[in-house]
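ESCALATION

Customer reports they have been waiting on this structure for their group meeting. Please prioritize. Original submission:
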Amino acid sequence: MRAMLMPNLERVELDGPAASVGQRQEAVVTAFPNATEAGVEILRAGGNAIDAAVAAAWALCVCEPSASGLGGQTVLLVRFADDRIRIIDGHSRAPAAASLDTIKAGQQRRGYRSCTIPSTPATLDWAHRKYGVLSRETVMAPAIRIAEEGYPITPLQHRQARWVADDLRASPAGELFLQDGLPPEIGHMFRQPELAGTLRRLADFGTEDFYHGGIARQIAADMRAAGGLITEEDLASCGPPAQVEPVSTSYRGHRILSIPPPSGGLQLLFALNIIAQISATNSESSDDSWHEAIALASSAVFRERELRPLLPDDLIPQSRQGRLSEDYARQVADSILAPQSTKELATDSAEEPGDTTHLSVCDRDGIIVVLTQSIQSVFGAKVAHRDLGFLYNNYLCTCPRLSHPYELGPGCRPRSNMAPTLVLQGATGRPLLALGAAGSRRIISAILHVLSGVIDLGLDITDAVAAPRVHGLVGRKVWIERPAASNALLARLRARNRIPIVKSRLNFAMGSVNALQLMTDGSAKGAADPRRDGLVEVLS
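Update from on-call: job pushed to the front of the queue and completed.
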């Protein structure tokens, strides 16, 4: 492993001063070209990074329906021009009627009873009203235009629709997202007039309509008719997102900040600590040892989450580091480096491809927004509101059916792997990286790869995002993307009783990182993951 150092786990102050430069370069990177263009349009219209990020997020609700939408949830990490850093936590909650009695195990994965109360509209609207400078109508206009005029279906979108076509056909979602019962052909101009109408209502009347007005009544009626659990009272109970402090740690002199539970930020930071501990006991410097460390760490952090789950209140208030102590990381690192029997690693949990979307934006005043939103699985619950034009999420599939901090029940908060992340340079405190990812648990391993690739290996952000990845599942399996699957790496993993599974180059299932690299002279570089349809645009 090349030049990896042990992390500095001293307490950090999140609002300390940072050195400043002159006017900064503006940039937008999202998972779809139309959404990136929406963000750029808003920046050029005089909007700030909040305006641009919210506009791009509304646009992604239109042009990446398999990943996010009005029926999902959204979280943001914001670094303000005065160096304050805050999390806008828009996690959703289960309806009041959710319970083990009302939701069978199979109903948690798809269908109308797998849904939490959608919080994306409330979160985007609140963030924009609180911190944006342009009107709601201006910020929502690009998304409405995209829904009305359409966009060409990409090869990836055609493939995703093919994966779930049978499920979509079984509900009104098929009428919205299939073409004569079949996946839309590549290049087909996909228009969504129903969704355009819903977005226009939100632009005209505000998101109050979604939670207290006509849209709320339509959602509740749809749920009643289809056997769902979300009621008008549930929608009315959805308040504004919470503003919370990030979790943080130090890694090779840099400060890494991400989002606390129930999101995946703590797993990301803990994995960095484990990698540092592994490197401290291993002087070897090779790509194989680096990939092995990421595979072992990404497996270990999710195993630890299953064994010792944390609620936000379990974190240490002063440092927000939770179980990120050096001793704890060393214990876990020692355990995964010790000889392991097949029996000890026998439990493998299934990991479906998973879908989410991520965007990063920076503006000339130094505001940075790192936003992740999702409807959980590919095409969420696979059911949609026919007249409103959006899919429902299936986040209740992440709630265990046993005694657990996030167990299925009334008002429970689903677990998530979303991890919008900001990296600040050591002594200066200047932003270095603004990144996040899509891909369920691969969100963590994908961000690990990019973050470590830049900090430890000195890679350019574009090369770091495109580099082949590995991902350790909770049990014995390790996914390896070509061309990382060298004979030496396969042998190393098998020696630890792991089961290597080689995947194709730039594989969809390995996650998707959209990142910005902020340079000391105020310029910006960006990278959109080639595994998806993203686009980065840096304004000159």
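Sent to customer with the following note: The longest strand covers residues 431-438.
Escalation resolved.
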